[in-house]
Design a protein that fits this description.
heterodimer; A: 322 residues; alpha/beta; Rossmann fold; 7-stranded parallel sheet; 5-stranded parallel sheet; B: 275 residues; 10-stranded mixed sheet; 6 helices; globular
């Protein structure tokens, strides 16, 4: 018997889509552990998102405090660890986002818990499947600590549906807020009206072959036509053509959209690790020998300068005909 | 300033993964310093040198440490050849340790060495776990700056401002000395590390970590390498995380080359139902 603390990120009065994948995993874990899902919302504005969270979890615990204006692993981890103990949790989980990856291992250290990172599947109470070696192999791991920490991979768990009835919401005190001397300075946000790379149904990515950031405009036009998120290979982000948080790959975002366009991307193993779970992959590249064609469902051997504008025109035609 | 850099050896990621008896077959594998850890050594060097003339700041020291079998000393020598000053090798077999054991040992080393900073890679490219830096900071009660893409050392050397790549942008976080920093890919950009000594005008090559020079390789042979055991830090060869089995994913079936764009759009709409 043990409960599952699902640390959930929120934005405004809504849980983030990434948090719904966490809830989906947490439900499976709660069943395996014979306990219930407790959604944990920590930080400024947490109370506002509680009603939304209660649609997905039978219990919601909110920690809101003026001292938690900005996320810091140093201040959040002790709160999560304490509430895990107070709520008799045997599993603590958060989606493997940048925040989840920063926070959960620190929580694990405070709880002397073993952690399964970036998991793709719950195999049993204490047994998980996770990709290793840039997704070239899947390892099944068993964790022997009384409390287990987990970061499920968003692309591997479908967003949890709403429950039949709303859960209860309670508040918990933040207690003494520790910062260990750390301070949030500022966030240089990448503003975009496009969907989050992690949630998008369609992703349009460009690689080194795009040559300049300016050239990505045509890919953005394709993306906006399809309501897609923009992505890029490491070569393109490293060259400064596009923002770093567009990077898809082993060390960037892991995506699994319905449709993935890889334009002028060679298909290095690190990039494939981030997108080969996509349902349908289209590769456009002028060199027919590039490895990207080995994972693509549909390949177009052509220069992007010619192929992409034509693709935009054809999709517009298709849309007009419907 | 003294910087401790924990490093891990990993099988060369360009080798194709093979399975033997339900686990990754490492027979005859070639090993390298985990790329992110190599970047951590590079970061430590850039924090402690004048990049323009290559001179080391007085009193600066870089200590590299690894846990692993006897062979792992080769990767420590590589780090010494890059410019680290001395190494600590904690002897153990790979199946005797997990993140928690590693963290226990590193905590013991930090307490003995009292570094001003721990700089390490954000993850090892074999296990892809991304845990040890955060866990170590948690156990030490130190601040952590993970996924660092840039570091600026304050003039008084008592704090650093770290640019972190997070979802939706770059977060700047200030952490005091001592703390734990884990580095991301872009930390090796031409101007990613600022230490107040290297002139603002200086740009590193941006080609990744420096290669050991012949002189560095020769010097590395004479640099001190201490050896220790897990028990020296109160750790036991009892990992809480067990790998039960490893499988290779089924290969994606090869797709088809489409002759023209209209056919592609038709296939995407009718066959893949993706449009």
């Amino acid at each position: 018997m043990g409960n599952v603390i699902a640390f959930c990120e929120f934005s405004g009065d809504q849980l983030r889509t990434s948090a719904l994948a966490n809830i989906a995993f947490a439900r499976q874990a709660a069943q395996a552990h014979g306990g219930e899902v407790i959604a944990l919302l920590v930080g400024k504005g947490a109370q506002a998102a509680a009603p939304h969270a209660s649609k997905f979890a039978p219990k919601v615990v909110v920690v809101e405090d003026a001292g938690l204006a900005h996320y810091l692993a140093e201040s959040y981890a002790p709160i999560v660890a304490r509430l895990a103990k107070e709520n008799a949790a045997t599993v603590v989980t958060a989606t493997a986002t940048a925040l989840g990856k920063d926070l959960v291992p620190r929580v694990a250290a405070l709880l002397d818990a073993g952690q399964a990172s970036d998991i793709s599947k719950l195999e049993g109470k204490d047994t998980f499947v996770r990709p290793i070696l840039a997704g070239n192999a899947y390892s099944t791991v068993q964790i022997g600590t009384p409390i287990i920490c987990v970061t499920p991979r968003q692309s591997e768990f479908e967003a949890a549906p709403e429950l039949g009835s709303a859960g209860t919401v309670t508040t918990a005190a933040a207690g003494t807020i520790e910062t260990c001397g750390a301070e949030f300075v500022r966030l240089d946000a990448q503003k975009s009206d496009r969907p989050d790379l992690g949630d998008a149904k369609v992703v349009v990515s460009g690689g080194r072959g795009m040559k300049t950031g300016e050239n990505f405009k045509v890919l953005e036009e394709l993306a906006d036509l399809l309501g897609a998120a923009m992505g890029a290979s490491r070569a393109a982000t490293d060259a400064g053509m596009v923002p770093a948080d567009w990077q898809v790959g082993q060390t960037g975002k892991i995506v699994a959209p319905n449709l993935y366009f890889a334009v002028a991307i060679s298909g290095a193993i690190q990039h494939l690790a981030g997108m080969k779970g996509s349902k349908t992959i289209v590769a456009i590249n002028k060199n027919k020998d590039e490895p990207i064609f080995q994972v693509a469902d549909y390949g177009i051997v052509a220069e992007w300068e010619k192929a992409v504008p034509e693709l935009i025109a054809e999709i517009k035609k298709l849309k007009a005909s419907r | 300033m003294k910087i401790l850099v924990p490093v891990k050896r990993v099988p060369d990621p360009t080798q194709k993964a093979k399975i033997k008896d339900g686990h990754i077959d490492l027979t005859g594998a070639s090993w390298i310093v985990n790329t992110f850890d190599e970047y951590a050594v590079e970061t430590a060097l850039r924090l402690l040198e004048n990049g323009a003339d290559g001179s080391r700041i007085a009193g600066a020291e870089i200590v590299v440490v690894t846990l692993g079998p006897a062979d792992a000393q080769k990767e420590l020598r590589t780090c010494l050849a890059m410019g680290a000053d001395r190494a600590i090798h904690v002897e153990c077999q790979d199946n005797e340790i997990d993140s928690l054991v590693v963290v226990k040992v590193l905590k013991g080393i930090v307490e003995a060495e009292k570094p001003d900073l721990v700089v390490m890679g954000k993850q090892a490219v074999d296990g892809d776990a991304n845990q040890v830096g955060q866990m170590l900071a948690g156990k030490l009660g130190w601040a952590q700056a993970t996924f660092a893409a840039s570091i600026e050392l304050a003039g008084d050397k008592k704090s650093l401002t770290v640019g972190r790549e997070v979802d939706g942008g770059v977060e700047y976080k200030k952490v005091p000395v001592p703390s734990v920093v884990s580095v991301d890919l872009r930390i090796v950009g031409p101007k990613s590390v600022k230490n107040g000594v290297t002139p603002e005008s200086h740009a590193y090559s941006g080609e990744g970590a420096r290669l050991p020079s012949l002189k560095g390789i020769m010097a590395a042979k004479k640099k001190p390498m201490a050896t220790a055991k897990l028990a020296d830090y109160g750790a036991e060869a009892q990992p809480a995380i067990k790998e039960l089995s490893v499988v290779l994913p089924p290969p994606r079936k090869a797709g088809e080359i489409i002759a023209d764009i209209p056919t592609l759009v038709k296939k995407l709409a009718d066959e893949a139902k993706a449009l």
